[in-house]
Design brief:
By secondary structure, the chain is an alpha/beta fold. The chain has 16 helices and eleven strands. The structure holds glutamine.
Length: 485
């Protein structure tokens, strides 16, 4: 079983193309391992018999020209899947069965992939630890009792536990990169407008982006190449020339200029993280890159700005969950009472907190003081990056200010939870692409990631840098299979 599940996506695709493995054999191996991995709580929904049927059907008439021929893939339960339950980790969508498919998932099915199941996530992707899911928290395969990060926690856990060869997540403020960092995997948040948002349950529409998560950079590049497309169904989708990311990958990054932003050296940064960053700088130099000190002066405003803009958009997006149009409905004495009870019982605490903050900052008395100001600062943050990119090609930082923390450790302290996003949110505010690659371990032996931030639409550049650095780092994930039953 593990001789199949431990293989890279590229290797599985080749085995199918060379007819050394069938889709059914591969699918069964991932299902068998998934069934033994219930303790991780990585899945919200799966229908493995259906998945096997699809694999068998693929094998009957295999189309080997496709990029993901018969490859089973589990995905974050934030992507709408036609006729398959989609919950966004919320009770309010507990019985929601979409009548349409998200563009990003459609793109991967069009290349021959098969849906393995829907993966756990924070409720409406609000969280950094997967503890806000109505369907329970997810365990990090690295160690029992650790969070896998969030909000794509189920995706990261399933990937690092080898329950799926690759997966897709969404990143509004770090939800691909932070869990990738916590589980020793690779995660790419593409440029805003690169992957269609059509059919993704909306959290904060000006920040949300779908992206690939994989065991290595090459697999990540292949998945991005398939996911990313111009889509007229998303008004913010951008029509630009997309690369064949996996085919154009190169380790030749000699002379590339990499910026090190001094403002990311935040107060109280643990020594493990500082050491990792220094090592990262050395790896980049070893690849032939040139290191340049830069300044992103408005960095310290990014977190408060994000935690105004994101809840504002969330409060507006989540207004549609009223017990009439979607999912769960509570009984009420009259219409207003039904709305109130549905939303009170259907949403969890974190979602309610965001709706309250969002409604407050958008209210007429406080709009100028909070929301408008946050929008102005967002522009300054974007300008900082534009300025820096006159001097450098990419920026290197740690992905997170710590390794994976314990389940329960930050749950009742939202501010300390939000601080975990300190290195990731500026990227979303500026709409830029960024990748997290595993780069080392802390003193407890838990994985740590480095983040490479690129210029808009320059996914290829950061993938290349990551590809080159990955070889120098030669990271090995310490997975012990402790959860296998
Ligand atoms: N942790 C951040 C939040 O809770 C980011 C979430 C995300 O990227 N979806 O808002």
């Amino acid at each position: 079983m593990t001789d199949i599940t431990s293989q890279s996506l590229f290797s599985l695709v080749n085995k199918i193309k060379e007819k050394k493995l069938s889709s059914e054999e591969i699918t069964k191996a991932f299902i068998e391992r998934s069934e033994k991995s219930k303790e991780l709580n990585a899945y919200i929904f799966e229908d493995f018999s259906q998945t096997i049927n699809k694999a068998k059907k693929f094998d009957e008439k295999p189309n080997l020209d496709l990029k993901l021929p018969g490859i089973p893939i589990a995905i974050k339960d934030l992507f709408c899947t036609k006729d398959v339950k989609t919950t966004a980790g919320s009770k309010i969508l507990e019985n929601f069965i979409p009548t349409y498919e998200s563009t990003v998932t459609q793109n991967i099915w069009n290349e021959g992939a098969i849906l393995l199941g829907k993966l756990n996530c924070d409720e409406f992707a609000m969280g950094s630890s997967n503890e806000t899911s109505f369907y329970g928290n997810v365990q990090n395969p690295i160690d029992k009792g650790l969070v896998p990060g969030g909000s794509s926690g189920g995706s990261a856990a399933a990937l690092s536990a080898q329950l799926t060869p690759v997966t897709i997540g969404t990143d509004t403020g770090g939800s691909i990169r932070q869990p990738a960092s916590f589980t020793g995997t690779v995660g790419l948040k593409p440029t805003y407008g690169s992957c269609s948002r059509y059919g993704i349950v909306a959290f904060a529409s000006s920040l949300d982006q779908a992206g690939p998560m994989a065991q290595n950079v090459e697999d990540c590049a292949l998945l991005q190449e398939i996911m990313s497309s111009y889509d007229s169904k998303d008004s913010t989708s951008i029509d630009f020339k997309r690369n064949q990311y996996s085919k154009e990958l190169t380790k030749d990054v000699k002379g590339k200029k990499i910026g090190i932003p001094k403002e990311y050296r935040v107060e109280g940064m643990p020594k493990d993280i500082e050491d990792l960053w220094q090592k990262g700088i050395q790896y980049a130099k070893d690849c032939g890159a040139q290191i340049i000190d830069i300044s992103l002066p408005h960095t310290s405003y990014a977190l408060p700005t994000y935690y105004i803009v994101a809840p504002a958009e969330a409060s507006s997006n989540l207004a549609r969950y009223d017990g009439v149009k979607y999912g769960f409905r509570a009984k009420g004495e009259n219409l207003i009472d039904m709305y109130e009870k549905t939303r009170s019982e259907g949403f969890g605490d974190e979602v309610k907190r965001r709706v309250l903050i969002g409604t407050y900052v958008l209210s007429s008395g406080y709009y100028d003081a909070y929301y408008l100001k946050a929008q102005k600062i967002r522009k300054l943050i974007k300008n900082d990056f534009d300025e820096a990119y006159k001097k450098v090609d990419a920026i290197l930082t740690p992905s997170t200010p710590s390794s994976a923390f314990k389940i329960g450790e930050k749950k009742d302290d939202p501010v300390s939870m939000y601080l975990n996003d300190i290195f990731t949110v500026p990227v979303n505010l500026a709409g830029l692409p960024a990748i997290s690659i595993p780069a080392g371990h802390d003193t407890s032996g838990y994985p740590l990631g480095l983040q490479i931030i690129g210029k808009a639409f320059k996914e290829q550049e950061i993938l290349n840098l990551a590809y080159a650095m990955e070889e120098k780092i030669s990271f090995k994930n310490k997975i012990t299979d402790w959860w296998i039953k």
